[in-house]
Amino acid sequence: MKKTLRAVFSMRTALILLGILVIACVAGSVIPQGEEAAWYMSAYSRQAAGAILALGLDDVFHCPWFIALAVFLCLNLLGCNLVRFPQLFRQFKEGFTPERFLKARGKGEAVTACTDPEALFAACGFRNVHKTVVQAADGAQTDTPCIYAVKNKAGIWGAWVCHLGMLIVILGFGLGQMLQVQYAVYGVPGQTKQVGDTDYTLTIDDFTVELREDDTVEQYTAAITMTDTRTGETQSGETSVNHPATLFGMRCYQNSTGWAADIRVYKDEELIQEEVLCAGETMDIEDAEGLSLAFSAFYPDYEQGPDGMPRTASGKLNNPGYLYRLFYQGEMLGMNVLMEKEAITVDAYTIIFTDPQSYTLIQIKRDPFTWLAGIGAALVMAGLFLAFYLRTAELCALRGADGSWQVMGYSRKGGEEFAGMVREKREELEAEKTSHGKEKGEAGDEQ
């Protein structure tokens, strides 16, 4: 039973579980989440789509096996910390003594020999030096003087705090992914849209697309304002790719962009309807029951490909073309590419497309456990600081029968480096002592 528990609560098991979860998280970031099965069948090969759907990679963070692994990893980290806590606490409170040091480390090879151990301890940064005598196993005192000191005792908690932080990060991330709410708002500058089922609206103040010299996109940037409709309070910000804005506790991401156009509907040459429609949207024609228009795609520089299919020659607005579908009571009346200044005529109705412009898609996320993941990340950093910058180290000096001192040292991290530092400090002290001796001798000769 003990062997099983050690295996379950071992660091090796934790690393295996963490590796699997990292791979799953990468898959969840690369593969679009939450789409219909038909979408994956059209976007990927049959084998890849089948694997994605079978393994639940279309919704990784809500998949039963992902949740089970995350729970198991949390239990592993929790078990590791619970098992190690009593031992670490006893060591921190009572375990740093010369008797324990000599028993655990032995008297083996000395780090160095010296004539003034107290000066060496001070040079190595050790304070609160304890002078005592070594006690034998039976409790009787020997006549062997001993000097002992420890520094950075808090460093022994480094790995423990780091594991606790990892546990809290996983809990915060897992709970956040399961309980977070996402909304998508898209439109062109000047439009105000409702943010899902919340009491907030989002206004797109401006949207710019920065291009490189070769006309490829370098960055998308949207200036946005969110309004609390209950209080009238507003918050504004700017969001671009990889640089989200935070408004009213919600993260606003610049997700994607596309093309929109101004759709104008005339009846008997009188303007009766005008709307901004994004590619992929459908609008019902007012005053014409059952008649609807779908703006299917936009081609900034329209041309017909060798296969007869529409395509764009470049990303510049040189020859705009609008692919539309017209429906009546659900049945498609026709589809075509409408060029600039051309019109669709149905009975007394005339429809024209004009003013093509880029729209922005803003993805809005509300994660109620971001603060918990933040606390976990802070603990991980604190644990790393304790482990690597506050290295627990011990020095113990024993005086031999001939009066010389042998100094032994131990560091939880970088043992060889620590031993080299002690020897270097001893050499510096001896050189300084020799220099002082020469100066005194020269002064005596002068007298």
Keywords:
10 helices, six-stranded antiparallel β-sheet, 447 residues, elongated, alpha+beta, five-stranded antiparallel β-sheet
Q: How would you summarize what this structure contains?
A:
Helices cover 37% and strands 36% of the residues. It has 447 residues and is α+β, with helices and mostly antiparallel strands. It has 3 domains: 2-76; 95-152 and 391-440, no CATH class; 181-366, no CATH class.
How would you describe this structure to a colleague?
The protein is α+β, with helices and mostly antiparallel strands and 447 residues long. It folds into three domains: 2-76; 95-152 and 391-440, no CATH class; 181-366, no CATH class. Helix content is 37%, strand content 36%. It has ten helices and 21 strands. It has helices at 2-8, 11-30, 37-43, 46-55, 64-94, 98-105, 117-123, 158-179, 370-389, 415-446; strands at residues 112-114, 130-135, 141-151, 181-187, 192-194, 200-211, 217-228, 234-240, 245-247, 250-267, 270-278, 282-284, 291-299, 302-304, 310-312, 321-328, 331-339, 343-346, 349-366, 393-399, 405-411. Strands 4, 9, 10, 11, 18 and 19 form a six-stranded antiparallel beta sheet that branches. β2 (130-135) and β3 form a beta hairpin. α2 (11-30) crosses α5 (64-94) and α8 (158-179) runs antiparallel to α9. The longest helix has 32 residues, at 415-446. The radius of gyration is 36 Å and the shape is elongated. The mean pLDDT is 86.
